[in-house]
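Cross-posting from the modeling subforum.

Setting up a comparison between two proteins and wanted a second pair of eyes on the formatting. Protein 1 (sequence, then structure tokens):
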Amino acid sequence: MTDLRHRGTAENELQQQQSDDKGSEKEGGSDGETKPDPGVPEVPVSTDDTPEVLNKALSGLSSRWKNWWVRGILTLAMISFFFFIIYMGPIVLMMIVLCVQIKCFQEIITIGYSVYHSYHLPWFRTLSWYFLLCVNYFFYGETVTDYFFTLVQREEPLRILSKYHRFISFALYLTGFCMFVLSLVKKHYRLQFYMFGWTHVTLLIVVTQSHLIIHNLFEGMIWFIVPISCVICNDIMAYMFGFFFGRTPLIKLSPKKTWEGFIGGFFATVVFGILLSYVMAGYQYFVCPVEFNNDSNRFTVDCEPSELFVLQDYGMPAMLESLTGWTTVRLYPFQIHSIALSAFASIMGPFGGFFASGFKRAFKIKDFADTIPGHGGIMDRFDCQYLMATFVNVYIASFIRGPNPAKVVQQLLALRLDQQLVIFNSLKTHLTERGLLQVGEEAA
């Protein structure tokens, strides 16, 4: 990460930024005409992080084709690793999501630290990681309480932590807040509050979204795999179409993105989503909700598949019927939902990448890091995934999932015995009045 050399105080930096902004307005405000901001570094000279074995094998190719092969080989390696962790099961998937979250947070925070390193802001990195710990404690504690309720109730320490979880989380955050206030230093207030906001926005983008990814996973691995695979497919196919057919620039933030790649990636991703959904919907391992078995103390994915994953006949639209000659088509209902998922991955997902491109251009850096040769950092590969995770979670809550009986039972068991008895009698009376439950004497 580039180390920045600031020359003045925070006030001088602000005045210089305002001066540059005014100059940009006079020049028309376009990217090509704005003056370079002296408060941020120039784009660093890119280093060749390609493995030596690939450098030797591709030494005779032009830089364009060399980059194509490097990206392609590393992409295949990452896809193979993705298949491997799916095979390892939900626990490994959740651990990988946590590791990716921590790495993405580290890459963004390191940029912030590099930008203002010369000011030696006290406690910045320590407080950033402390807030990450607090937010993860809150979110993962909520997840444990929701999905491991019986296990939590069996263990006295866990039961206490679960009961006062939100209060403990708030106390931890309040401690960090007080530490931040005590760390404020004269002449650097503005920058310190800037970095305080930087940390919290990073937490909002990274930690919250990774938490939603894990929630999607518990709904069934298909809700985790299909959206992520659609984003990966769109990224690959948009690159392929753009590489071979791209002529028309799509957006100034990413000059290499083209309309040809965008449109080609859209149609390829929709087809891919329908086919992948058809394959996965036939396996219980992918479609069953991930649940914790209290008897075996392990996760299980065994269930009777819901209607979403049962083949049904659908009538063909008149136009398609005239073209294909088919009157009906046999599909899983989930495949229809997969069209919405793949369409979002193709149309809105890239905006996560555009957002990341704008962020990198604001600080004149090429990539978030150099973790993956030819691809940049982990955040460079997952910038679209976080936007997708939120959409999937909202989509499930809006169109798929109804009230969760297991969660209602958990809440009832947390009540006092007299409160449970009142609810039991009310429910019994309601069911009896509707004829769903016989009176005790008639049942006898």
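Protein 2 (same layout):
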Amino acid sequence: MTSIKEQAAISRLLSFLQEWDNAGKAARNNILKIFIESNQGKTAPELEQEFSQGASLFLVRLTTWLRITYPLPNSLGEKKRHSSKEEREREMRCNRYLVEFLEVGGALTLLEILGLEKIKEEDKKESIKLLQIIANSGRKYKELICESYGVRSIAEFLAKSKSEETQEEVQVLLDSLLHGNPKYQNQVYKGLIALLPCVSPKAQQLSLQTLRTAQEIIGTTHPSIVHCVLKVLGTMHLEVQYEAIELIKDLVNYDVRFPLLKGLVALLTPSLEKSKLHSKILADSSVLDFTTHLPVFLQQAAAAKTIGVLARGSLSVAEDLLHMRVVHSLLAAMGNTDHSNSQRLASLTLEVFVQMFPVVEEHVRKSMGEELFQLFLESAEDLYRKIDSIQADILAANTVNVTKEAPGAATSPFSPTLMIPIGWNTSQPWKRKRKGR
């Protein structure tokens, strides 16, 4: 037989639920607001005591209301702002409430909210935070999100979101889905790769950052990652380019090293052939023609920069690049008078190879001619300012092939002892003292 105190608690619960059931949108928002204020900081057992062991009845009503009315933007914002931040976060930390929320389709509802066009960004951000709580509750909850096509919904939202703060919250969620989720970590990895071609620079930056973590966790590569990361090098955003280069530095240690290096070298000598339609429309507009080629030139410059970074960091990578005729391609890039940054970065990277390999110095001297080569030695970074049109044409049309005369090339083209200079500086292998410098 229940005590008077328990009967009073049950009566309050029934009255509260009846008030909720009979209330309209505005009244329910007010009930939620009062509930949050009066129960802020209470634990799950304290909430149960307050509701006479009937808190789940209120949770069901709340989630059902959300499920039925979430497509209506005007009503969703108030519910989420009042309920999700405090009350539902607190309830979800209790495994029982979390299970009950998921059983009524709570996770799927949160994911569907991300794709609604008329929902405010702030409300979608709250959905992401709730998904973070679910994912952080354990492996089976991460799997539930992924089984509900969550990775695709989350990735699409990251690409379309206009708020950098919200995008950073999405990154936290994707990172959580990567860890402790062996069944679906490859799905997250592929989703991140699929994000690289998107138009949002922030989404690209965050995806590249998270891909580095994913790559380390998974340990194997997906073939499409090479094309996608090389394509990102055409960005105008330096923060995105930096993250792409950092990922490339990691990828050269995996099985995609050869196609990755080969792709970088190929970007130094892009094909700029125009379509017939393009030629007819823009035949007399050099400015528009340059704009059309700009992404290719940006890729060319970024590839030159990346090759320099890789060569400075690893002698074996530098040797692999040397046998891919990187010297020929760098000289050709230096002849691109349409893009000075390509010339400048190609010159700086060529300087690295000249300093590392005597055979490269010999070939570059012959290709440039003594006068231009001396200017190159004086300041590789400013050389592009001093090159005339004839010299640029000579550089662009060079036929340098260092690999043919590299000692040991005939027997072992990737020999680790290829042309290592006498007095090699092991602490800074790209630096070698030369006469006249």
